[in-house]
């Protein structure tokens, strides 16, 4: 399910499950001409990192092939955080995502009720009408007796 995971990763790149986090500067540093003193609270956003054209050319385009081979440069794709603070449930989330996608694709076809629905950012990307879809089984789903 490698390609399926690439699709999931690209979806998380465009709409990260966690928007970012607060951190405390452990040393004085300068960033983009601003002096940040040790102890200052800072906020990083996954969205800004994931849409940096230096690491993701044409960053608004949905392109699962970005995750083929070695994938993105380390710490440029961080939907589950990175380093020692990486989400401990990352592999469980991966399993859940893959099982969900597999069952959705294998059992149903779907159509968007608003195909050109706009996305609002407040602060997370959210479909303006909630992204309603109509699911139809590919075939009759068999139920098994208990």
Automatic annotation (TrEMBL):
Localization (cell) = Membrane
Q: Answer yes or no on keyword Membrane.
A: yes
Q: Does the keyword Heme apply?
A: yes
Q: Which GO terms describe its molecular function?
A: heme binding; iron ion binding; monooxygenase activity; oxidoreductase activity, acting on paired donors, with incorporation or reduction of molecular oxygen
According to its record, how does it sit in the membrane? Single-pass membrane protein
List cofactor names only: heme
Entry's Gene Ontology cellular component terms: membrane
Instruction: Identify the SUPFAM superfamilies for this entry.
Output: Cytochrome P450
GO BP terms, alphabetized: sterol metabolic process
Q: Which residues bind heme?
A: 87
Keywords annotated in UniProt: Heme, Iron, Membrane, Metal-binding, Monooxygenase, Oxidoreductase, Transmembrane, Transmembrane helix
What family name appears in the similarity comment?
A: Belongs to the cytochrome P450 family.
Please identify the protein, giving its name as recorded.
Beta-amyrin 28-oxidase-like
Organism, by scientific name, is: Punica granatum
